[in-house]
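Dear colleagues,

As part of the handover before I leave the project, I'm documenting each prediction I ran so the next person doesn't have to rerun anything. This entry is a single chain, and its sequence is reproduced below.
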Amino acid sequence: MTRKIIGLVVKLNSLLAEETSKRVITALKHYKVDILVEKKSKSSYKFLSRYRAFKLEEDPPPWIIVVGGDGTLLRTFQKLCRDDVTVMGIRAGRRGFLLDVEPYEIEDRIKDFIEGKYRIYRYTRLDVRVGRRKLPCTLNDAVVVGKMAKVIRLNVFRDGERIYSIDGDGLIVSTTVGSTAYNLSAGGPIVDPGLDAVSLAPMNPVQIQLKPVVLPATSRIRIELRPASNEAWLILDGQHVEDVYEGDIIDIEKSKTPAVMARFKWWENYYERVFTRILSYW
C-alpha cells in the first residue's frame, strides 16, 4: 500500500503554532504518514529542518494541514491556486474563524483526515486582473483603497451595467467566505454560507446614500479609476498588494478553481462561530 503524503504549513514565528504543530507531527507519525513541510515554515522552525520541503506554487502534496490563523490559511490558498489539493485547518491563532479544528481535538481529527472521514467543501475564489495581467487567486476579498487616506474616484460595473460612481475611501469586493471579514467591518452583510454570491461594500463614500450590494457569484465586475482619482492600492486577501492609478481597469470574476477544504463539524454551528469568534471579539 502506498504511504499517504501530507504537507504541513505552519504560521511563522508563533510559539503557539510551534507547539501545536509538534502535536500534529506526533499524531501523523503514529499513522506512518510521510510528512513534508512548506518551505517558509521549515525555515522558520529548527525542529522542522529534518523534513523534506515543498513549495505550494510548484509541488504540493495532495493533502495539506495548515496550523495557524486565517492569515496563514489565506496565504496558503493564494499560493495554492489549484483544486486538486485538500486542506485541513487547525486553529493556532487569536481568532482563526476559517479553521475549524481546535487544539484539543487534534488527534481525533487527524485520524479522521487520514481515513477520509470528512466532508469536502469547495469555496468560490475570485480571478482578478489589472488590465491583461492576472493576479493571485483570491478567497476572501479584493479591496481597492486610496493611498495615504486620500479620496479615490471609482466607476463600478456589473456585466457592463453601472452600479456605482464612488468618491470615497474605496470598495470591498468579497466572496461568501469573505463576507465576515473586512466586508462586515465596513458595514457589508453577512452572507449565508449556503449562497454563492459576491458582495460590494463602498468604504466611506461621499455619496452617503450608497449601500452594499449582493450579486450572483457569476457576475463580471469591473472597477475603473476615474479621471482625477488619487492613487490606490489593490489588496487581495490582505496578502498581495498592487499599485493602481487613474485610468486603470480592474476586472473581477468567479474563478474556475475553487479552494478545497476538509470540514468536520463546520456548518453545524456556523452562526455560533460568527457571534463568538467575530461579533463578540475584543
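The longest strand covers residues 161-168. The chain has two domains: 5-123+258-279, 126-254.

All the best with the project,
I.
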